[in-house]
Amino acid sequence: MRREPFCVVLFSLLTLLLLLASPPRLPAAPLTIGLLPEMNVFQQMKRYQPLAEYIEKQLGAPVRLQMVSRYGNITENIKKKRVDAIFIGSFTGALCITQLNLHPIARPLWLDGTSTYYGKIFTRKDTGIKTVADMRGKRLALVERATTAGYVFPLAYFRNHGVKSLDEYFAAYFFTGSHDAAITAVLEGDAEVGAAKNTIFDKVLAENPQARQKLVVLANSPMVPSNGLCLRPELVPKYAAKLSSILLTMHQNTEGAAVLDRFGALRFIPTSKADYQVVMDIARQAGIDLAQYRYKNR
User: Fold this and answer.
1) Nearest to 289 by CA among 115, 137, 98, 104
2) CATH number of the domain bearing residue 240
3) Full pLDDT tens readout for the chain, 298 residues
4) The domain containing residue 96 runs over which residues?
5) 114, 125, 231, 280 — which has fewest CB within 10 A?
6) pTM of the model
7) Is residue 75 part of a domain?
8) Quick check: is 9 in a domain?
9) Is the domain of 214 the same as that of 234?
């Protein structure tokens, strides 16, 4: 019978002992990226999934998307570390930068060459509404108390036109939870006046020719930064440089360019805290102190 050399047997035994002593290697914890419910949640998830898969492949670590149920849950989700990063809106970005020191990384440059959006206040043509004075006693459809286009800009606009209280000026106002739902509320007669971001407004009108015939825009907000990816501050050393490189260079390779095409963007561009100053100015006009802002939608 052939005998193995003692050193080989000893090495095999030591290897076996190390394998038994070492705990099984667990997969890396996923990087959880939050999304806002600015449109139908299924459409939103479907739109961002290819981008998440691309980031996961380039990062070499699992990436998971998580829909934030309401805009108002954003700060809570970040504080409780339910999300690591989030594609955040302009007002929620300004709010979380101010309160939580959230770190902006990048935002998309859209097919039309813009990396911004703006808010619209609109009505149906058949209401005859043309001015703020015409809106007295009417119903107002807003989106959420943490959106620039769907609340903060309208609030600033009305204050600048002498409206001190929405409760006293309008017969009713309510929050729909998404921009497309606010547009639908006006189209279907649940409200005479509505507010939403231009990107969703234009999308609805492109898909619904009747809406284009029925709606008229009364006011537009200043340009504010598009939804950008922001990171929790404690994760900046580990992920900021990597995520920035992945997003800012993806248009330079075939796979990344294909993902961008499906996403509806040309490329990603750098984003900084300074880009949110315009939103902070609108919030101030609306009478909102970002450092102390707490709210509940009703």
Assistant:
1) 98
2) 3.40.190.10
3) 445 554 444 445 444 444 444 434 334 678 999 987 766 778 888 999 999 999 999 999 999 998 877 666 677 778 888 899 999 889 989 999 999 999 999 999 999 999 999 999 999 999 999 999 999 999 999 999 989 999 999 999 999 999 999 999 999 999 998 999 999 999 999 999 999 999 999 999 999 988 999 999 999 999 999 999 999 999 999 999 999 999 999 999 999 999 999 999 999 999 999 999 999 999 999 999 999 887 655 5
4) 31-115+225-285
5) 125
6) 0.80
7) yes
8) no
9) no
